[in-house]
């Protein structure tokens, strides 16, 4: 199977999750989705990450995004681990309740489909020597198109604010003919898409500023009333 790239259709699959069996495309429905993988249950970095996603779930929901985790263990293990995540998160970072599904993938079926397995790190393997998943993220739009992929090493926890930031950029770019500059956050000035002529820009973005002939800035249209 060819590598998954930005613009590929996210492969559909059926899986058991902590919230019951799913068919992935049906589960996404007309929402956006974030599918993110973890090396294994009861591991420290993963525990902090899942707690953070649980606390940030309202931020994902505000953007019409469903979140779903994957860890290369079985359901009964996930169910026990969730109790630890809630407990640790609540003790250290405020009320934490994992109420999104985590896919059980002990045989690495989904992990193989999404090329989430570690090919390099000899320490990121289970007791049988089978590679664990690395920390991947797939942002998938309502047409089931992959819009962002990330792969982080097992040792490094991800920054979920960055995932939200990219979703803001993608959703603004889908709605308006704009792109977003370095370090952009919702509300900062955006770039008029290079495909928009100056004539069109006068109508679409009155008051836009030409900083360089190919770099025109305008207020973020996604925050206007
Ligand atoms: C962790 O989540 O802490 C972790 C998992 C696998 C390898 C290294 C760290």
UniProtKB/TrEMBL annotation:
Domain Thioredoxin: 4-172
Active site: 46 (cysteine sulfenic acid (-soh) intermediate)
Gene3D superfamilies xrefs: Antioxidant, Horf6, Chain A, domain2, Glutaredoxin
GO terms under cellular component: cytosol; mitochondrion
Gene Ontology terms, MF aspect: peroxiredoxin activity
GO terms classed as biological process: cell redox homeostasis
InterPro entries (alphabetical): AhpC/TSA (IPR000866), Peroxiredoxin_AhpC-typ (IPR024706), Peroxiredoxin_C (IPR019479), PRX_1cys (IPR045020), Thioredoxin-like_sf (IPR036249), Thioredoxin_domain (IPR013766)
Domain of life (superkingdom): Eukaryota
Listed PROSITE patterns: THIOREDOXIN_2
Family membership: Belongs to the peroxiredoxin family. Prx6 subfamily.
Function: Thiol-specific peroxidase that catalyzes the reduction of hydrogen peroxide and organic hydroperoxides to water and alcohols, respectively.
Protein's recorded name: Putative thioredoxin peroxidase
């Amino acid at each position: 199977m060819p590598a998954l790239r930005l613009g590929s259709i996210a492969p559909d699959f059926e899986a058991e999750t902590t919230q019951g069996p799913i068919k992935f495309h049906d589960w996404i429905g007309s929402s956006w989705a974030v599918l993110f993988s973890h090396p294994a249950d009861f591991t420290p970095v993963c525990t902090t990450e899942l707690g953070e996603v649980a606390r940030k779930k309202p931020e994902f929901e505000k953007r019409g995004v469903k979140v779903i985790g994957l860890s290369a263990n079985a359901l009964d293990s996930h169910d026990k681990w969730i109790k630890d995540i809630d407990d640790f998160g609540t003790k250290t970072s405020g009320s934490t309740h994992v109420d999104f599904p985590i896919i059980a993938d002990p045989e690495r079926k989904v992990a193989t489909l999404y090329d989430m397995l570690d090919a390099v790190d000899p320490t990121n393997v289970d007791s049988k020597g089978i590679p664990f998943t690395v920390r991947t993220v797939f942002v998938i739009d309502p047409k089931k198109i992959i819009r962002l992929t990330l792969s982080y090493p097992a040792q490094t926890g991800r920054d979920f604010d960055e995932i939200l930031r990219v979703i803001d950029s993608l959703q603004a770019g889908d709605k308006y003919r704009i792109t977003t500059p370095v370090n952009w956050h919702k509300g900062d000035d955006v770039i008029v898409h290079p495909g928009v002529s100056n004539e069109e820009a006068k109508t679409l973005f009155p008051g836009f500023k030409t900083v360089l002939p190919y770099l025109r800035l305008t207020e973020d249209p996604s925050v206007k009333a």
